[in-house]
Amino acid sequence: MDDFEEKRLIKAIVESIEGKSLLGDMDLAPLQKKLQDLLNGQRYLLVLDDVWNENQGEWDNIKAVLKVGAQGASVLVTTSLERVGLIMGTLQPYELSNLSQEDCWSLFMQRAFGQEKEINPNLEAIGKEDCAKMWWCASSSQDSWRYFALQERRKRMGTLFPKDTEMEKQNLISLWIAHGFLLSKGNMELEDVGNEVWRELYSRSFFQEIELKDGKTYFKMHDLIHDLARFVFSARASSSNIREINVKIYSHMMSIGFAKVESSYSHLLVENFVSLRVLNLSNLELNQLPSSIGDLVHLRYLDLSDNFRICSLPKQL
């Protein structure tokens, strides 16, 4: 329900009621009239699942169309954002608590194994390890489960930060782009693709505790997903395949697989890191940069913020 555009939503409701797709493209006014004809005097329950839109005016427009129902007609909204519940609700929002570890595993068992009485011990071990992430996957193949855990490379970035670290959405998307984790999609800008990926991961509970501050979106990574991602991407890596280096300011971060944390820049020979895509040198009080940085042909993200003494950049850049 992230796309809350009124015409699209009303069309979807009409098609759900009639059980068939509408032919052709109807304007908004006739769509509104058709929906009101269908709901007029009816006691209905409309469920809007996973709503993100926080625009009060757009919701007021939808409510005006739906008011033709009989007494008792209701709209049930699910959302991950508290503000949406407050805007859309006429009753106090009901906040669901997180699933316990036992309930999460029980749900995963039902989805993955169905009515099977005997479970492969290897599958059970993998399932318990990954249950918070993969409960929607109904495969009972050990290889496909492990592949599912390994192939979602986008979550690597979150593993660099300790648990409960607050991350900023657009910064994370910029890092995804720098690492080449995002693929182009039609005429969409990579930033827009990144927003889609972020929303998908959030809907699958990879991210939580969403907070809007000064027009920016901040969030944290789910602890169990963090544990899994660290497990999957904790292999040691040589300088030839290190893709990201963070120096000093992120000393609280972790070196993991493709990413390296350095306490000092003075001894760092960046030219040795031929696969480097991200280099964070923020807040180091640098006077200048070595020309060797220009030889990093794969570099896509260079952070020099808060280095006020730097007056010029190497020509290679």
TrEMBL record:
The keyword Nuclease does not apply. GO terms for biological process: defense response. GO terms for molecular function: ADP binding. Residues 4-116 form the NB-ARC domain. Keywords: ATP-binding, Nucleotide-binding, Plant defense. InterPro entries: LRR_dom_sf, NB-ARC, P-loop_NTPase, WH-like_DNA-bd_sf, WHD_DRP. It comes from the Eukaryota. Pfam families: NB-ARC (PF00931), WHD_DRP (PF23559). The keyword Cell cycle does not apply. Belongs to the disease resistance NB-LRR family. This is NB-ARC domain-containing protein.
